[in-house]
Each structure stands twice: as structure tokens, then as C-alpha cells.
Amino acid sequence: MPKAKSDAGSGAEPAAVVPAQDEDFALRSLQEALEADKRYKPSKEELLHFYEQMLLIRRFEERAGQLYGLGLIGGFCHLYIGQEAVAVGLQSALDGERDSVITGYRDHGHMLAYGIDPKVIMAELTGRAAGISRGKGGSMHMFSVEHKFYGGHGIVGAQVSLGAGLAFAHKYREDGGVAMAYFGDGAANQGQVYESFNMAALWKLPIIFVIENNGYAMGTAVKRGSAETHFYRRGTAFRIPGMQVDGMDVLEVRKAAEVALEYVRAGNGPVLMELNTYRYRGHSMSDPAKYRSREEVQDVREKRDPIDHAKNELIAMGVDEAALKDIDKRVRAAVAESADFAENSPEPEAAELYTDVLVERY
Amino acid sequence: MAIELKMPALSPTMEEGKLARWLVKEGDEVTSGDIIAEIETDKATMEFEAVDEGTVGKLLVAEGTDGVKVGTVIAVLAGEGEDASTVSAAAPKAEAAPAAGAAAARPEAPAPVAKKDTEVPYGTNMKTSTVREALRDAMAEEMRRDDRVFVMGEEVAEYQGAYKVTQGLLEEFGPRRVIDTPITEYGFAGIGTGAAMGGLRPVIEFMTFNFAMQAIDHIINSAAKTNYMSGGQMRCPVVFRGPNGAAARVGAQHSQNYGPWYANVPGLVVIAPYDASDAKGLLKAAIRSEDPVVFLENELVYGRTFELPELDDHVLPIGKARIMREGKDVTIVSYSIGVGLALEAAEQLAGEGIDAEVIDLRTLRPLDKETVLASLAKTNRMVVAEEGFPVCSIASEIIAICMEDGFDDLDAPVVRVCNEDVPLPYAANLEKLALIDTPRIVEAVRKVCYR
């Protein structure tokens, strides 16, 4: 096996080969750190909070699907059902004061994971003036600059370069923040992703690239569209360490986020995380999902569901069914309230057509 | 409370469908995610999933029913503690989505703001400067003024700029603020746009705008549209700049004027200056703008020397055209390198007794219609001179404006003088034939003056 070259000059003492000098070591180091201690150990309250957030996303998305069916939501609507543990686990580890997040068009779950009022999210879905983008963005274009959540982007892969730009701004300002850019297994094949990997690694930008691998790029199964299906290895050519994480386990996701954040915050440059997850619904509302079997979906629902998983863990921690029922009721009530609000609040004024095209007047 | 299950819209355009098959029967327990029916649309057969938990009460629409309108109650679900056999559908309600406001009156677009006077104060000392130096000085002054401003692009730092526009910036500002990128336009345009979203003031140089085609997605989809899509939450104060249009003998792929492309997009500001004073004053304004700006320079003009006012802070208003030469017989509208040709043509026409007014648009979006129309009202004749393709050009737009808003002032049709409608050839003679030149402008002016 060829030995890795040491960076030390030729005059240095010949040292025993230590793992740190193995060129491949850095690429695996974070995975090894995660493997050593895979799951976050939450307090009962923390896990209850994760559970409630995931349940809120699930119920919210189910209701969004319903409202779509009633014609109250139009256009494209991509639901996050099945993937809840990813946004909840990752975002719970971020520093809300400093860190920024950007994602693609499947963005409702990320907004909810910030604790943003479900009413303004649902009202954006129905295109109302009270929506977080004043009804001008819709399902795919939601933003909350207040929470350092930068959208909500509809062009597959664009958020990866934009996220590298957010990371550039953190580094330029030396504000200690880290950017987190989510994208899917489909976007992972876009050219600009690799341009961004190169520059992020070259300039040691503080960014975590998060591939939410839900198995399908729209209707194309990963193995039909990707030569390298182990997405965590996709940064190897740029010397970006990769991590493969069970995206259906909120505690593993949280732990992985901590490992990655520690590395990135220390100024070491980017990390690439692959989160293996699954979407239960179609790519968007108009997807008949004929590219996979009903059994496949049912199997994941029964065996890997992130919410059931957390629920069982809570019961094992001694939380009683009544407490879980209370959460369920609270979540249902919040979702019902958001749906009523979204259905009954007014559409934007016609004059809004012309606002926000440009910031200044010339 | 009983839950009504309604015929879902399964695509953005679906209005009705066929209830092909029920997969549950009355009295069945369902939980969220269970498939309860198959519905056929004109495109596909889709599965209809339960969202709530409960017991299936009545199935109100028989399977095989065609033409079931979206929103029709097709079944009811009894919730916890209810008797499925007794629940029934509530009185039917109007299920129509809110009226789309078809009858609403069309709102008026806001009127443009009154433009400030652009004249340099009387008695200002003038020095001479090339356009290249003026652009560099604009960036340097803004970088001194605001730490958020940085310059990024291919060869902008150590090489001093492929066309030497960023000469000396690395020395003064260092590698933190003057950043060489790999040759990856799509990626670094995205990084610049993202940095602007994150609060910085990037100046992104394209070695030429021909290469910006690799990056045009970020200029248009990311930079131009985000403020609108976010309801005004997310600004993107980025400047994309570099040479645009035909250079000399570089062939079709390195010679296009993209002014009309960018000027087509709401959410962008597009500037294309001609002389050194406008290059400097407008680039400074572009860097300070809260909006994304496409700033189109011209390689052939970089080395030309013009007068430049010696002012501490020479900033010009965006969106204001400039009358380069006053005249009463005919107006020649142009921008960028075309302005030089138009001025030459006006000089020559003066010898023939035709007094031409020359307008430099300077900003292509928002376009200064008022100045164009005021000049038309004065001269009643107009030629548009543009170094670029004729089809769907800035010239086309000016002509449309004159037709719509200046028709009564026209004594002759507006004529455009553009490049030939072909990819730019390499051969010297063919290139010359393809490109706009002074004689063609002179000829067009004679034509609209019926001489």
C-alpha cells in the first residue's frame, strides 16, 4: 500500500506513520467519530420536543396535501413526510444566532423546524397576504431572514452555490457562523455542486453540505441516475470529509450534526453529510409514484418511521401514552388553526403585484 | 367530529376525475397513509391516501363513477368515539376555491421617480481618464468606503484582471477582498449571489459576459427574483460586471451583446455606460444599490480616454439617460460603444445640414422612457443605433415605446441600425460587414429625414 507523503520537510525526523498522515484519513475521520458514539443522548424534555416538532411537520404536511386536494393550494407542492428527522435533528444542533440554512423547494419542514408559526407557512401555501412571503413565493419559496433561513429555491442545485456564498459571508465577517445547505440525491448530480465543493474546500468555507438522500430524484431511483450511489463519498475529489447518517433516526442525525459542526467551526472547511431517508409521498402532489411499489413504501413506514421510532424511545424512557396523546392533540389543534387561518385570510391586495420587484426606485 | 373526504385535485390542472376503485369498505378502520381509493385523472391513476385516523362511515360515490368534480364529498370518516354507522355528510357547502379576483381592477404600476439632474456641478475640475481606470477607481473608492464590498472573479487578483480593470486592487485590499476564483462561472456567480443574500456587497467580474451564460441561472433565478418571491425579505445587492459585446476578431462565441437578455428580466438593474465619467459614476451607484445589477462594459472602449470630473464622490443616478449632443432635426438613441458611433454620425450629418440629437441610454433597465419621448417630441424623427443583434433588441423596445407612447410625435417610422442578424464571423472583411458602423447610422438618419 503506498504510504502517504508527509507534509513535513525532508529534514524532519522520520516518524512512525500515524493515521493523521494518511491522506485518506481526514475523509473518514468524522465517520469514525460518529461510529464510535452514534446517538445523541437527549433528556426526556429534548426528545419530547423533537417528537413534537416531527409530528407537527407530519400533520402539517398531511393537511397541506388535503388543502391541495381541495384546490386551496396550487401549483407545485412537495411534501416532507418521512424526512422529518433530518430537518429536526440537524437544525436542533445549530446556533440560531449565528448559523444560516438554505434548501431547495421541499422546504416546509425546515421552516417548521425553526419554530416559525405554522399559520404564516400555511397561508403562504394558499397564497394569502399573511403568508411569510406575502403570498408571492408559494410552497417552494419561503424565507425567514430573521431566522437566517435563506429559502426556498426552485432550481435544483442552486442552493448549494448560494449556501457556499452564505458560508463565504460568515468567513468574510468572521462571525463564527456556519452555513448548512440541504439538497437531494438528484441535485447531487448537478455540475454547480462540484464547482461549489471545490471552492468551499479551497477556501475552507464554514459549510455543511447535507444530501437528503430519499432514494428518488423525482421518479428516478438513485441507482438509475447516479454512478456513485454512496453520496457521502462525492466530496472525496475535493478532500471534503464525508459522513453517512441514518436520516430516519433523529438522535443519530443530531449527533452527526454535532460532530460535523465541531469540525467546521474549528476552521477546517466543509463537511459533506449524506442522510439516508425516505419520502412517503410522491415527488410533488401530481406524482402517481408508479416507479416504486406500495410494499416498499409500507415497509419503510412500518420499520423505519422516524416518528414511531422516537415515540417508542419516549415510552421506554417512561413517558406515558397520555402525555403523547396530549402532544398529538396540541399538534392537531395547531395544524387545524393554521389551515383555518390559511383558508380564511385575504389574498394579497392587487397593488402588491408591483411591490418588491426592486428595492429602490430609480 | 366526522371528517369529510373530498375528491382531491391530484394535479395543478385537474378539475374532475373518475373514482376508479374503493380500497376500503364501510366500517373499515383506517390510519394516516392507508390507501383508500384509486382515482383516474386524464394523465394517470393515482392513489388517494387517508390523512386522518378513523372508521369509514358512508361511501358516498360509487366506484366507477366518472366526472366526479374536485371537492365533492366522496366519503365520511368517523373520528374517535363516534359511531361510524350514524355519521353522514354535513350539508354540502360551496367548495370553490376563493375567487381568483378575475373581476378585480388592474392596479396601476407605480410611476417612476423624478430623476435628479445628472449634470456635473459647474466649475468642477476635469481630468482625463481611460474607462478602464475609471472602473478601477470606482471599485477602489467603494471598497475604501464599505468593508462589505469585495471583488471576485477569474484572474482579478494576481493577474490584475484579464483586461486589467482590477489593476492594483489586490495590492491595496489584499486577498480577503480581491479573490481569484477557479474557472467556474456557475459556481462563483452562485457564491457571489449567496454572499449578497448573506449581507455582503459582492462585485462579481465575468471575464466576458459570454462566459456568464454558464451562470445566467443565478443572475436571473437567484439574484433577480428572490426579493419578489420573498415578499421583500431577502435582498440581493450584487453587481455582475465585465466586458460585453463584440471585441475584435474573436469569433461568434466571444462577441455577443447580452444587454437585451438581461434587460428583459424584472428584478434586475442593467447598466451599459459609454464614457469614463458614466462608467465611474454608475459603477459606484451600482455597488451602493440594494438591487442586483448587471453592469455591461465594452472591451473596445476600456482604453479610450475621456474627461472625468474630479469629485470626491462621483455617483450618478441609475435609470437616467444622458443627452450627449443636442439637436433639433432627428434623435439617435444608443448605448455603450454605439454612442461613439452615433456621435461620429451626428458630426458628419451636421456637415450635411442635419442637426442630430444623441441620447445615451446608459441604463437599459429601468429604461428612461421620458428622455427618449421628450426628444422624439422635439425632433419627431428617431434612429436607434445598437451594437447587437436586431431581433428582440433594445432597439425593438425603443421602437415599441415610440409606437405606444409617442405615435403622434412621429413624422417618420423609427429605424434601427444593428449588427447583421448572423453569428459574428471571424474573417476581417466579414466581421466588418456584420457590425454596425457610422456610415450605416448616417444612412438611416438620411432615410428618416427623407433626404
TrEMBL record, chain A:
<dbReference type="InterPro" id="IPR001017">
    <property type="entry name" value="DH_E1"/>
</dbReference>
<keyword id="KW-0786">Thiamine pyrophosphate</keyword>
<keyword id="KW-0560">Oxidoreductase</keyword>
<dbReference type="InterPro" id="IPR029061">
    <property type="entry name" value="THDP-binding"/>
</dbReference>
<keyword id="KW-0670">Pyruvate</keyword>
<comment type="subunit">
    <text>Heterodimer of an alpha and a beta chain.</text>
</comment>
<comment type="function">
    <text>The pyruvate dehydrogenase complex catalyzes the overall conversion of pyruvate to acetyl-CoA and CO(2). It contains multiple copies of three enzymatic components: pyruvate dehydrogenase (E1), dihydrolipoamide acetyltransferase (E2) and lipoamide dehydrogenase (E3).</text>
</comment>
<dbReference type="InterPro" id="IPR017597">
    <property type="entry name" value="Pyrv_DH_E1_asu_subgrp-y"/>
</dbReference>
<feature type="domain" description="Dehydrogenase E1 component">
    <location>
        <begin position="53"/>
        <end position="350"/>
    </location>
</feature>
<dbReference type="Pfam" id="PF00676">
    <property type="entry name" value="E1_dh"/>
</dbReference>
<dbReference type="GO" id="GO:0004739">
    <property type="term" value="F:pyruvate dehydrogenase (acetyl-transferring) activity"/>
</dbReference>
<protein>
    <recommendedName>
        <fullName>Pyruvate dehydrogenase E1 component subunit alpha</fullName>
        <ecNumber>1.2.4.1</ecNumber>
    </recommendedName>
</protein>
<dbReference type="InterPro" id="IPR050642">
    <property type="entry name" value="PDH_E1_Alpha_Subunit"/>
</dbReference>
From TrEMBL, chain B:
<dbReference type="InterPro" id="IPR000089">
    <property type="entry name" value="Biotin_lipoyl"/>
</dbReference>
<keyword id="KW-0786">Thiamine pyrophosphate</keyword>
<keyword id="KW-0670">Pyruvate</keyword>
<dbReference type="Pfam" id="PF02780">
    <property type="entry name" value="Transketolase_C"/>
</dbReference>
<dbReference type="InterPro" id="IPR005475">
    <property type="entry name" value="Transketolase-like_Pyr-bd"/>
</dbReference>
<dbReference type="InterPro" id="IPR009014">
    <property type="entry name" value="Transketo_C/PFOR_II"/>
</dbReference>
<keyword id="KW-0450">Lipoyl</keyword>
<dbReference type="InterPro" id="IPR033248">
    <property type="entry name" value="Transketolase_C"/>
</dbReference>
<protein>
    <recommendedName>
        <fullName>Pyruvate dehydrogenase E1 component subunit beta</fullName>
        <ecNumber>1.2.4.1</ecNumber>
    </recommendedName>
</protein>
<feature type="region of interest" description="Disordered">
    <location>
        <begin position="101"/>
        <end position="123"/>
    </location>
</feature>
<feature type="compositionally biased region" description="Low complexity">
    <location>
        <begin position="101"/>
        <end position="113"/>
    </location>
</feature>
<dbReference type="InterPro" id="IPR011053">
    <property type="entry name" value="Single_hybrid_motif"/>
</dbReference>
<comment type="subunit">
    <text>Heterodimer of an alpha and a beta chain.</text>
</comment>
<dbReference type="GO" id="GO:0004739">
    <property type="term" value="F:pyruvate dehydrogenase (acetyl-transferring) activity"/>
</dbReference>
<feature type="domain" description="Lipoyl-binding">
    <location>
        <begin position="2"/>
        <end position="78"/>
    </location>
</feature>
<dbReference type="InterPro" id="IPR027110">
    <property type="entry name" value="PDHB_mito-type"/>
</dbReference>
<dbReference type="Pfam" id="PF02779">
    <property type="entry name" value="Transket_pyr"/>
</dbReference>
<dbReference type="InterPro" id="IPR003016">
    <property type="entry name" value="2-oxoA_DH_lipoyl-BS"/>
</dbReference>
<dbReference type="InterPro" id="IPR029061">
    <property type="entry name" value="THDP-binding"/>
</dbReference>
<comment type="function">
    <text>The pyruvate dehydrogenase complex catalyzes the overall conversion of pyruvate to acetyl-CoA and CO2.</text>
</comment>
<dbReference type="Pfam" id="PF00364">
    <property type="entry name" value="Biotin_lipoyl"/>
</dbReference>
<keyword id="KW-0560">Oxidoreductase</keyword>
